[in-house]
Design brief:
The termini are far apart. The chain has 253 residues and is mainly α. Helix 3 packs across helix 7. The chain has one domain.
Length: 253
């Protein structure tokens, strides 16, 4: 318990330093026009994020006694899975509440997606737009970043960190909420709005993981979300505005 608490403190201090440095690096990246320099930053983020998240996951899982035998969905998460999988009959009032919640959630999701589409077609680029690849070489690195994010970030924020926090706090709810908040803070370089959106996305991914019980499935979902954001959505915008091929399909000069 003492060792686990000390490791959490180390991750908190190290994570704070890393996020602050990442904010500075991303601000510089947003002003970078030279593709060689952009590619160097892509490579650095790819290697660093893999080493940091996977390394922290291995240590955290070891401290939580979950490294071996490895479980994609540990028994400690079973209460949350049962809650989401509940087959108990619900009252008509409860059914109405669930229906209203689903309606509001779906409507909000559609509104967000429409806003994101309009934003992608706007000449003004948002914070996340800087990561959209501008040529084929950048596209390869961005694709690797997306796949790596799906694997390493989900391994850490959806499994390793919640398990370790559960061991220390004894509360599954607290461990899941703190992990979702940590996921948002790790993307602070997107600014306040981007961080809030990422926190909400992390919460949805947590629910998705707990409901289906498959870490691989949530990893794939995360990667697909990034691929849509950095490839498919910009390609639609390029076609609708100029009827040209996506910018990431252009050969590097």
């Amino acid at each position: 318990m003492v060792l686990s608490s000390a490791w959490i403190a180390v991750m908190l201090v190290g994570g704070t330093w890393w996020v602050r440095r990442d904010i500075t690096a991303y601000a510089r990246f947003q002003t970078q026009s030279d593709t060689t320099e952009r590619q160097n930053l892509y490579r650095r983020w790819l290697v660093e994020s893999f080493l940091v998240f996977v390394g922290a996951s291995v240590v955290s899982l070891w401290l939580a006694h979950a490294l071996w035998p490895f479980e994609g969905f540990p028994s400690a998460f079973t209460p949350a899975n049962r809650l989401l999988q509940s087959d108990e009959e619900v009252s008509s009032d409860r059914s109405l509440q669930i229906g209203i919640g689903l309606f509001v959630g779906i409507g909000l999701s559609l509104a967000i997606q429409w806003w994101r589409l309009k934003k992608s077609l706007s000449p003004r680029a948002g914070p996340d737009q800087a990561l959209i690849p501008r040529n084929r070489r950048e596209a390869i690195l961005t694709l690797l970043l997306s796949l790596n994010a799906g694997f390493s970030e989900e391994l850490f924020f959806r499994l390793a960190l919640p398990l370790l926090l559960l061991q220390v706090t004894g509360s599954l709810a607290v461990s899941l909420v703190v992990s979702a908040l940590g996921f948002g803070l790790a993307h602070a370089h997107y600014g306040l709005k981007g961080m809030l959106a990422t926190t909400a996305a992390g919460a949805l991914l947590t629910v998705y993981y707990l409901h289906h019980g498959s870490l691989m499935r949530v990893m794939i979902a995360h990667a697909i979300i990034d691929i849509i954001a950095f490839f498919i959505r910009p390609a639609i915008g390029d076609w609708m505005i100029s009827r040209k091929a996506p910018r990431w399909a252009v050969a590097a000069s």
